[in-house]
Description:
CATH class of the largest domain: Alpha Beta
Distance between the termini: 14 Å
Radius of gyration: 21 Å
CATH superfamily of the largest domain: Glycogen Phosphorylase B
Mean pLDDT: 91
Structural class: alpha/beta
CATH architecture of the largest domain: 3-Layer(aba) Sandwich
Oligomer: single chain
Strand content: 15-25%
Number of domains: 2
Order of helices and strands: EHEEHEHEHEHEEHEHEHEHEEHHH
Helix content: 40-55%
CATH topology of the largest domain: Rossmann fold
Shape: globular
Amino acid sequence: MKVLHIITRMNTGGPAVFLDHLTNSMSNSGTKSIIAYGYCEKNETDYTDSHQLRADLVKIKSLHRSINPLDDIKSFFQIKKIIKTEQPDVVNTHTSKAGVLGRIAAKSVAKNIPTVHTFHGHLIYGYFAKYKSLIFTFIERIMSSYTDCAVAVTAETKNSLTKLGIGKNLKWEVIQIGIPGKLHSPVNSSGQQIKLLWVGRFTQIKDPILAVEILKNLSSSNPNKFEMTMVGEGELFNEAKQAAVNLPIRFTGWLADPFEVIKDFDLLLITSKNEGLPLVMLEAANLGKPTLSKNVGGVSEFISDNQTGYLVEGRVNEFTNKIMNLAADKNSIQQTGIQAKKLLNEKFSVEAMGKKYKDLYLNLSIRK
């Protein structure tokens, strides 16, 4: 079986890592994967530059995140050409722009090509101004006619989208993200300090400024007790660095494999305004480390508060108080991390994810 994945860009982040894990797991079961993708923004790094994927990579010269009608039309015809050349059994699109161009291109080549669109989250809350979200909703309602199956990474993502009339009559699958398990034992952080880790794009939706405010509150309440490492870059990178002057925060920029480089931490911090199922949360659990997050999106489908992680509604003082309470018993943080890793191994394996996707692809291929 041959599967063509189409994604706007392979910038370092969740969807790119997801495709790496998915195509790698499916290569072991006789599936050939092709990834067609565009170019990253200037403040992003391309995941394919630092990782060897077990998939054929096809670069689309005119495809990028920003709206450009001329480039978008060129991308559409390039995608059509790729589909005609590769003749895939299934086309699976990812992210908004590639999702639109890829699904229309596939159906314009042959109406019986099965098309799948994976919603890695949704753009309804927190990403854009309200009018842009309305446009996205309108477009995705139309795109249902070009889609044979929609996949959501969490039940919350599916429910939020269908309530808005997106894919109401579509075949839906909820396939949770899985990652390869690590066999080594968790490494407990050294020293008496509580070491926080934040990983993501420095954008409004990820709210890195909130993370800086949290550390500022912690430091003013209890100097020398807390420190934080922030991994990533983006349009808010310089603003975050300026806000963090004189605070115990280390900025690393982008790292190819942050959870391979940084293992000496106690708690992952997620301050996002919206999320699907954050891969960083699973990566932390893989190391036996728990996550403290805003209770947004599908986060609670992995985190049960005080059992496999920690949830707050999102205000600065809520984060601060929670961390202060946890700091009083560092051993409890480690025990929560052990439970998070146990849950990961039981329900969020890459093998389970790969099998569900392959079963879906096979069923769609048979139907055509």
